[in-house]
Amino acid sequence: MRQRIIAGNWKLNKTITEAIELVVLLKRENFGMNPPVVVVCPVFTAITEVSEQCAGSGIKVGGQNLYWEEKGAFTGEVSGSLLKDAGCEYVIIGHSERRQFFGETDDSVNLKVKSALTQTLLPIICCGEVLEEREGNLTNQILDRHIRGAFKGVSAEDAARTVIAYEPVWAIGTGKVATPEQAQDAHAFIRNILVELYSDEVASAVPILYGGSVKPENALEILKKPDVDGALVGGASLKAGDFAGIIRASSEAGA
Ligand code: 13P
Questions:
Q1: Cα separation, 48 vs 78, whole angstroms
Q2: Which of 5, 177, 232, 239 to mutate for ligand 1's pocket (most ligand atoms within 8 Å of CB)?
Q3: How far is ligand 1, taken at its centre, from the CA of residue 72, in Å?
Q4: According to the CATH classification, is domain 5-253 in 1.20.200.10?
Q5: Alpha carbon 185 to chain centroid, angstroms
Q6: What tens digit of pLDDT does each residue of 134-180 get?
Q7: Which residue ranges make up each domain of the chain?
Q8: What is the spatial distance between Cα 179 and Cα 6, in angstroms, rounded to a whole number?
Q9: Which atom of ligand 1 is nearest to the CA of 214?
């Protein structure tokens, strides 16, 4: 059975002190009877302290981006090996904000995915359509491009170690969550691409998370869908009580 994962993408928020405070509060929360894997993704500058604070708690830490070269003259970049050094086990790759504001392409996402896997970091690979694409019935075409692009040249063995996040861009930070059916359809479509690219075995091993305005109030209905294995949470991951509510919804949705 594949793992359920609830990951918090803190984006560009929280000082080191605030980040530690959030983890301290999170550790006091009840995660329910069937807790998922819980991951928090702070800004680079807070990763070391957050990792120290999470040690022994079961809460895992992820980066929000990485560069594919390990070291050298690449001013301003951070590599997978440095993320591991700071305590990360996961890394978000190809978030729509990076595609939109920082020029990420399917090719750069692919290089980053391969680099993360080489460094034994677990990549959380983001995909998803913008509003015009959904309205133009292009959602599946976009998902096809994002997934095939991200996995180009990735072996089946490595693919089985990845996590995918379906994040419809129109649902990110808008309060406009996808319906459970829209999420299920997209997730089933993505899983089917993995069957075509690899095998049933790989496709059923990869957790597919939903992201976009997930809140404690709407999480359970989405997480109950068979191909929704967790959530990548933005705004609601910045408050311990809200994030824990989503974690408990996952726990309620099943082991
Ligand atoms: P919100 O939960 O704030 O909509 O953000 C989703 C997201 O982008 C997570 O990566």
A1: 14
A2: 232
A3: 32
A4: no
A5: 18
A6: 999 999 999 999 999 999 999 999 999 999 999 999 999 999 999 99
A7: 5-253
A8: 18
A9: 2
